[in-house]
Amino acid sequence: MVKITDESFESEVKNHTGIVLLEFYSDSCIPCKRMSPILADIDETHPELKVAKYNVNTDSKVAEEYEVLASPTLIFFKNGEEAERRRGVVKKAELEELIKGVLA
Question: Long-range pairs for 37-45 at CB < 8 Å and ≥24 separation?
Fold first, then answer.
């Protein structure tokens, strides 16, 4: 899983050709900790995706730009543009359905 910062966002997400699943998380967020193994599994089983994490405790510019107000927030980027968004814990089955939709 790729760690995204304000400095790396443009090169790793905005300029990426393909799909990026970016989690906006906080170290102290219990729901974020629950998402971690789900995202690790998605990262393993979906090589066609770039799965990445953005820590809102250490960076804030991108979170502000995308009006991320809650952790965790998952945003799918397709060719650098926001394609889908979910807030809160997302079950693996729901995430798999979202992936199918974004890849279509």
Answer: 38/90, 38/91, 38/92, 38/95, 39/1, 40/1, 41/92, 42/92, 42/95, 42/96, 42/99, 43/1
Q: Is 100 a catalytic residue?
A: no
CATH code for the domain of 89: 3.40.30.10
32: annotated active-site residue:
yes
Q: Which of 20, 32, 56, 68 is catalytic?
A: 32
Question: What is the extent of the structural domain holding 12?
Answer: 2-103
Active-site entry in 1, 2, 26, 29: 29
Domain count across the chain: 1
pLDDT in tens, 14-62: 999 999 999 999 999 999 999 999 999 999 999 999 999 999 999 999 9
